[in-house]
Amino acid sequence: MPTRLPPDPGRLPPWKRRRPPGPRTPLSPAQRAAAQARAAQAGRRYPNLVDNLWAARHVPRGEVPAAGEEE
C-alpha cells in the first residue's frame, strides 16, 4: 500500500493555506480601493479573500488618487 504524502502548500487554494508567520499588515487605503474596484468589476458587492490577496501583492501601499487625477 503506497504511503500518502501531505499536500503541497503551494498547490492548495488560498483559503486552505496557513497564514504566513509574523504580524498582520492591514491593507492600505489604496489597496482597499483597488480590491473594491476589482470586486465591483466582477459583479460582487464587496471584495473577497482573492481580491484582497491580489491587492496586497499587486498594488503599492500608497494614497488613493483623487477622482479625476492620473498618476
Summary of the model, kept short:
The chain is an all-alpha fold and 71 residues long. The chain is elongated and about 55 Å long.
Task: Describe how the helices and strands are arranged.
Layout: H1 29-41, H2 49-58
Walk me through the structure.
The chain is mostly helical. It has a domain at 26-61. The protein contains two helices and no strands. The longest helix has 13 residues, at 29-41. The chain is elongated and about 55 Å long. The mean pLDDT is 86.
C-alpha-based Rg, rounded: 17 Å
How far apart are the termini? Answer: 60 Å
Total beta strands: 0
**Assembly state here?**
single chain
Q: Number of helix segments?
A: 2
Main sheet attributes: strand count, strand direction, barrel closure: none
Percent in helix: 25-40%
The overall pLDDT average reads 86
Q: Hey, roughly how much beta strand do the residues contain? A: under 5%
Notable characteristics:
71 residues, mainly alpha, 0% strand, elongated
